UniProtKB/TrEMBL annotation:
It comes from the Eukaryota. It comes from Rhabdornis inornatus. Pfam families: Spectrin. InterPro entries: Spectrin/alpha-actinin, Spectrin_repeat. This is UTRO protein. Keywords: Coiled coil. The keyword Nuclease does not apply. Residues 3-64 form a coiled coil. The gene is Utrn_1.
Amino acid sequence: EKAVNLKKDLAEMQEWMTQAEEEYLEKDFEYKSPEELENAVEEMKRAKEDVLQKEVRVKILKDNIKVLATKVPSSGQDLATELNVVLENYQLLCNRIRGKCHTLEEVWSCWIELLQYLDLETAWLNNLEERVQMTGNLPDKLDAVNDALESLESVLRHPADNRTQIRELGQTLIDGGILDDIISEKLEAFNARYEELSHLAVSRQITLEQQLQTMRETDHMLQVLQESLGDLDRQLTSYLTDRIDAFQMPQEAQ
């Protein structure tokens, strides 16, 4: 009777494993929304816990069959053979579910990381847009133009590492058919805004550089003219002081 019960337990265990495999490993999942992906991750975590909890039952079956094999070698030998098959299938199921759980967790982590990088780069684009707008109505002063140019250039020196991560993470998920529509839409919007703002910022940078160069040249010319006028003023003052008649002066002094 004990052998019959153990045989029944082995059959039930094998049946449970077959159902678990069909439910957790043979389904074709499509992750078209973050909610679907997150639910799949949670489901696989529960599946992993459920499978691992069966380890206690497997151990009890193994111990009982060993005891029976000691008492009734013939019955125990047959059950031991069936037990080996169940143990092998159980270990395989555990490994496959662990693997799928790990894969889904990695995919979810990849999605979260992509969102974080997009948030960082969006904040940078907002800052860049603000700096570009600030260069629109500048006072016609050299210091103001110079400060605006330096401020814009400091934002443009932003490293490209984050954008590289966005491209690679997005492509990895899209290649796996995971959230591909949502990610494609997000990346398209981000890239379009990045191209538009970066081109506008570079164009404004060139304009400011040219404006600054013109102002510096004008400032230098005014300084030279001022120095020349100062020299002339001092020369004329000396002529007046010495009471020199205008017709005795050089033509330019007259």
